[in-house]
Each structure stands twice: as structure tokens, then as C-alpha cells.
Design goal:
- It is a single chain.
- 0% of the residues lie in helices and 45% in strands.
- The N and C termini lie far apart (40 Å).
- It has a three-stranded antiparallel sheet with strand order 1-5-6, with no helix packed on it.
- It contains no helices and six strands.
């Protein structure tokens, strides 16, 4: 298995629903902006075990998937946001 690392951070706008989506079967992951119901099946393995973790507008996440350490998720508040200032 090749190690995969990604980071996502974005300003949330009025009315946005922001989710971190994770397939519980193959660990495919994505950011979902809008309605989570548009993603009921994993596009990678076609499994219907996709979990959604809601994110606040000032949150960012980082995930890493490796053969030796498995899945590592880190959620944090972005520096300079209203909740950390």
C-alpha cells in the first residue's frame, strides 16, 4: 500500500454544510460541500459504508494512510479564526 497524505482547509460561507467523508471499507476520503445525501456510495469500492463527519467553517483536517500505521486523522482550528483569536 502506498502512503497517502492530504490536507484540506477552506473558508466556510453562509449556508454551507461541510463534511469530511470517509469510506469505512477502503478508506477513500473526500471533502463534501453541500448535501451529504449526494454521496451514498463510495466511488472507489462501491460500498455504502461512507461516514460523514461535520466540520465547522474554521476547522481543517489532515489525514494520512499508511500500511504500518493505518489511518491517522487530525482535526484542528485554523490559526486566526474567530474561535482562536
Amino acid at each position: 500500500m502506498q502512503e497517502t497524505t492530504a490536507t484540506f482547509s477552506r473558508e466556510k460561507e453562509e449556508g454551507d454544510n461541510l463534511y469530511f467523508a470517509l469510506c469505512e471499507s477502503c478508506y477513500w476520503a473526500a471533502s463534501v460541500l453541500g448535501s451529504k445525501c449526494c454521496l451514498c456510495t463510495c466511488p472507489s469500492c462501491r460500498n455504502d459504508r461512507v461516514a460523514f463527519i461535520p466540520l465547522c467553517g474554521d476547522e481543517s483536517y489532515r489525514y494520512a494512510l499508511s500500511e504500518t500505521q493505518g489511518l491517522n486523522l487530525q482535526f484542528s482550528t485554523r490559526p486566526g479564526s474567530a474561535t482562536t483569536a
